Amino acid sequence: MTNTNEKSKYYIITKQKQLKAYLDTIKDEKILFIDTEFHREKTYYATLCLIQIATENTLVAIDPLVNNLDLTALVDFLNNDEILKVFHAGKQDLEIFYRLNNQKPIKNIFDTQIASLALGLGDQIGYANLVKSILNIDLDKSQQVANWQNRPMSEEQLEYAMADVIYLKEIYHKLIKRLTKKNRLDLINKEMLKLEENSYLAVNTDNIYKNIKLRDKSPITMTILKELAKFREIEAQRSNKFRNAVLRDEFLSYCARLKPTTIEDLELVRGVSKKILSKYGTSIVKIINDVYKMKKSDLVKAEKEVNLPIVDSHIKTLANFLLQMKAKEHEISLKLITDTTDLTFFLASDKEPSKLRESWRWEMFGQYLEKLRKGELLIGIDGKKVVFIETENKKD
């Protein structure tokens, strides 16, 4: 390891021996603060360019590109469930490690962006804004669009990258103090467990078609679209090309609508090219013909829309106003408390199932919404403030 900057005292790891020595050094650490820099413009998978890790006493940048570093030992180390791994908005970072870990999630994760929800700091607060909010420090953003594949990296790039974990450590400790003070650690830990689920990190090839616009919702048309999108996804993964570089959404949509069953038919589909015909033509036609051979029971069924009960718009307005007031009072994100569907069902009837009748959501908001719904909570003005007043006479 080479000390490259006395001010922040970070080290750059480019060799296997250095990586092994570093992992030996931090083997007893209980918390790692991690960020990555990657490149993902024309590829399906992100190209990992740099891994920044801080502990309470060390700060390193692991460069996997210079010597094609084998990261197996690092991934094995991260698989230690006793070590807490702290990220900010870490979904793409976790997806990278998920792939390096043979499609297995890294466990014991803490995401400071998600933790911020429980403190009312914003639904998707960015790292720079969180640093400003918690530490009152303005981050240098000049390297946000840097090409992290270029070597050598500039000192400015490295300083920018290391700041992501230097301040992450400070932010984590301050967030934990605030969460503990508000008794919200259990609440947020339940949200963190979702980050360890395969469904959070893996692409479901059977559902990818739902992101493609198509007016015709008939079973045969939707099944063709589903199978074509699945084929494209697998091809994109195999070739490591982004989806539209393989086959564009619009082309898949046209194929699903027109249903070409021969190469001659496919030649008439809008957006087709000689390259598509030669590379994918046979596969596309076969997929469509195979769909026609499917049993009716195996075709995509039209998804039933959630029929929300009818609730007066004025009641919804009052409920949302109360929600905003309670979220502000308790310094918590609206998103964590409820959503439109759950709120509507709650307002419709006391017999409808709702998360708002459970645990902390009931204590914080549900019980007051229930009183509002039953006419036991009034809205008033006290000076320049809007207040809610509980009535003395409750309905039987």
Notes on the protein architecture:
The structure is a single chain. This protein is an alpha/beta fold and 396 residues long. The protein has 3 domains: 2-201, Nucleotidyltransferase, domain 5, CATH 3.30.420.10; 208-298, HRDC domain (DNA polymerase, domain 1, Orthogonal Bundle), CATH 1.10.150.80; 313-390, DNA polymerase, domain 1 (Orthogonal Bundle), CATH 1.10.150. It has 17 helices and 9 strands. Strand 4 and strand 5 form a beta hairpin. Helix 5 (127-135) packs across helix 6, helix 9 runs antiparallel to helix 11 and helix 14 (313-330) crosses helix 17 (359-373). The longest helix is centred in the middle third of the chain and has 27 residues, at 155-181. The protein is flat and about 75 Å long.
